[in-house]
Design goal:
Elements: E1 4-7, E2 10-17, E3 21-22, E4 26-27, E5 32-40, E6 44-47, H1 56-67, E7 76-78, H2 84-87, H3 90-96, E8 101-104, H4 106-116, E9 121-124, E10 130-132, E11 138-143, E12 153-157, E13 162-164, H5 186-204, H6 208-219, E14 225-226, H7 238-251, E15 257-264, H8 275-283, E16 288-293, H9 299-308, E17 309-315, E18 318-319, E19 322-323, H10 325-336, E20 343-350, H11 356-366, E21 372-373, E22 377-380, H12 385-409
Parallel strand pairs: 6-7, 7-8, 8-9, 13-14, 15-16, 15-17, 17-20, 20-21, 20-22
Antiparallel strand pairs: 1-2, 2-5, 3-4, 5-6, 10-11, 11-12, 12-13, 18-19
Helix pairs in contact: 5-9, 6-7, 8-12, 9-10, 10-11
The structure holds MU-OXO-diiron.
Amino acid sequence: MQATQVTDNTWRLSANIHDILFEGMWPIPHGFSMNSYIVKGEKTAIIDGVCDWDGTPEVLFDQFDQMGVKADEIDYVIINHMEPDHSGWIKAFREIRPNFTIVTTAKAKVLLEAFYDNTNEVMVVKSGDTLDLGNGHVLAFAEIPNVHWPETMATFDTKTGTLFPCDAFGSFGAINESPYDDQLTQEQIDFYEYEATRYYANIVGAYSGPAKRAVVKTETLPFKIIAPGHGIVWRQNPQKIIEDYKRYAFYSKGPAKEEITVIWGSMYGNTQRGVDPVVEGIRSEGVKVNVHQVPDTHYSYILRDVWNSSGVVLGMPTYEYKMFSPMAVVLDELGRKKALNRQAFRFGSYGWSGGAQKELDEIMLRYKMEWDFLDPVEFLGAPSQEDLDLIYQRGKKLAVQVKEWVAADGCT
Ligand code: FEO
């Protein structure tokens, strides 16, 4: 990895990870970057960091050498967030630089001791506090609780207008030679936008209220550059990622885009026969449709598409008096992440009894999801032509409702 200059006296360092499940559960087929930043005044601070897996801290330390910065020149380690993808490197850093001051929030200080047996001096800061590095670089701190843990804060360099917001405004996706929006093609920006929506829905989505408040705080700052803990640095058009995050936070409670996501699973192909009719019904109204089969598709991708969709179709049979189990897993995750207030429709087969609807009602209630369902279409065994026609009509009706809802709300 190559350290690169962000702006005056400010550098981006980074390490990518691949071939793991992020947080032990989220696929990252295109990798994941963990960004760290060095700001040099008369004193030197490093902001954010990397995990401790497989020599990753050493990847960061190699970049000190590229910049001609010696580890023992670093005076302050600014910990915006204690999740180990940002703080894991601290123990390894202590091996090469025992004496430094950690700057973080009171809640993070407790975690610092719990995770890493901290022995370093800690400067506890809160919103409004500052740290003067000299040569005009005054760092200002703002707590942004629950973006994405309760102890999280953002750091702002008042001289360069660079905001270091940690998890906020980040994305999945490894980054190699070109970490800045002004270096990327539109195709590359689109790729990171896709990965940003998946990252948001998977990691930040459950905290969309705090994310909205963090965006409001950000907009009060005279920022010129947004330098997140993951993904690309926005220095040509930082407003783009601000506007994107506003939309992503808004999507939690809907409406989202004029899209419908169809999630289906089938034991012997009877429920599957309803998929084509419902998709055709939706498309007949010109509404974009995303289709995912469970359990084949990881819920990371389903969550991402449901997050962007104002409508959802569930096609699943009853299984052992309950819902087809892989669908229950997906719905549970959608509830945990607060994909709320969708227009919805369900269809599916049953055998010796029903039961899918009862469990669906329980999940909706448990997570207060408030999905507004059309009447379901359930059939004993295989669907009749009449059932399939009805499923087509329900898909069409759902698409009409989604269009009206999105139009009324002015959302895109
Ligand atoms: Fe990037 Fe909440 O850790």
